[in-house]
Design goal:
Strand content: 5-15%
Distance between the termini: 65 Å
Structural class: alpha/beta
Oligomer: single chain
Radius of gyration: 27 Å
Number of helices: 24
Strand order of the largest sheet: 3-2-6-7-1-8
Helix content: 40-55%
Length: about 575
Amino acid sequence: MSSERFLEFFDSLDKGQFRAAIEIDGPLLVEAAPGGGKTRTLVAKALAASEKQPVHIITFTTSAAEEINNRIEPLMREVLTGDWKGIRHIGTLHSWCLGYLRSTGFRGEVIDELALAEVMHDVNKRLRLRLSHKRMASLSAGAAPESHHEVQFVRALDSDMVENGLISYDGILRKALEHLQAVKAHRTDALFLIDEVQDSSPMDLAIYDVLRESGAELWLVGDLQQAIYSFRHEQKANVWKWWGALPMATLPTNYRSSLAVIKALNQINAEFVPRVEIVPAEGAPQGEVVLRQAASEAEQLEQLYNRVLNLLDRGYPDELAQIAVLCRTNRECDLVGTILKGRGLSVRQKKAEAGERAPQTLWAALGFFLQPQSDWMARRYLRVLGNDGIEAQKSAIKAMKPIGQMLVPALFAIEQTPFEWFSNSWMDRLQVPKKEQGWFLERLDQGWTDLGWDDILMRLFEAPVEQERGHGITVTTVHAAKGREWDHVLMPFCDQLSYRPKNGIEEERVFFVGASRARKTLAFFYSERRVGEWSGEIEVAMYSALERLVDAAKKDLKPKRKRKR
């Protein structure tokens, strides 16, 4: 790798990034502070290792995969050589597992949640069980059965899915794990670069374990200080086992935030274990952190509004889009958005449209197009259209042909390719509403001409959901803000009614993640008295992480006594 552009890229790494990407060989766990340049380090590791071994990059989201790909692709074009091993995959674990299953000869079609719900409820009804939808979804995703009835359900569900040539999105991981465990004697020298490892599910970790046992080299990057997604998993993932089990490197320098914001972050994470002491980058601006206490919730919202006006009067943001209000719950977002819009400010906010629903017709039509010979797909398509299809089913039985051939004979005279789907307007021909067609095309805004059906389906399942709509100040939840950043962040309702102590250390991490989104200024708002959202009782409680900030601020404000000579 002698390209001048390559040399410039590697020269831009700081000492910690260079050590993690280049100097340390073999498995590694990289602990990265917020704004620590983990993506840059991961890209450097991928580029350095790709000459000698196959590299697979596993990301938490498709947007992260696109960012990494956009950084790697122009550099790779300059140094391709005949003996280059190459980067084999950049994407989520689901997309990697689907590709792996295809390589083993698996040909099942990936179905959406609505189709999976139909199969699950059919099984539940047929076996006369009384399992809840939530429990059935957990079992289908790989949760361990806890009773004889649940074992029956899992076996029947697997049988139905195999018989109809179907696989669910979460079922991809389970099937890949089962296959990897069955052939784990197969050795591999591949390097797996795993981003955001702290957000891994138990199933993810099980897959990584099997890959490691098969000889794969794991290079993990993450930050337990930002692990805030355990609520998505029925069982908590034991990510802790990697800490101490692998050699470690640290990226402590924050290249995103001002000195004041970094000081606040170090006060918030003071009691975290493990903890990374965040170091400011050279030349970081001073910035500002503001603490505002109010007597009531109404006064707190008034203070927040005045803070926005203050930022605008001081000429801080070039545009309103550089200001974000990060709340703990959607209810708080609605409250803040209503106040700001009522005062004449433009707000970019998450808002569900009336009647908005999942694109049922699109999914049913797409499944029918891909598997026209499947009677299950044909019957589902008819149900979504509100057509019982009795005549078509009778004709199919009489002619001993698939139902689909009676419904749309033209489907059996074509190849089921993406080109055919788009060029011959099959969405119109299969009566997909225009709104659902728009939903589909929005998720393929980067084009489809070079994509296979698996790539297209993964984009539909994993495309980032636009959290807010409109223009102006962003009002959203902390979870929706992860991975993003703004010049000015305002955090209202910093008390135990929002950040609940019963959720333990994860609430501290949520608070930390929200604060770490700020580049220049950070403002916290809290009340002496707030009415409980559910209980209706007036409660007084300061959030513990905020209490540390307040105590530190009081010490800074306390006048220093002169020493007597």
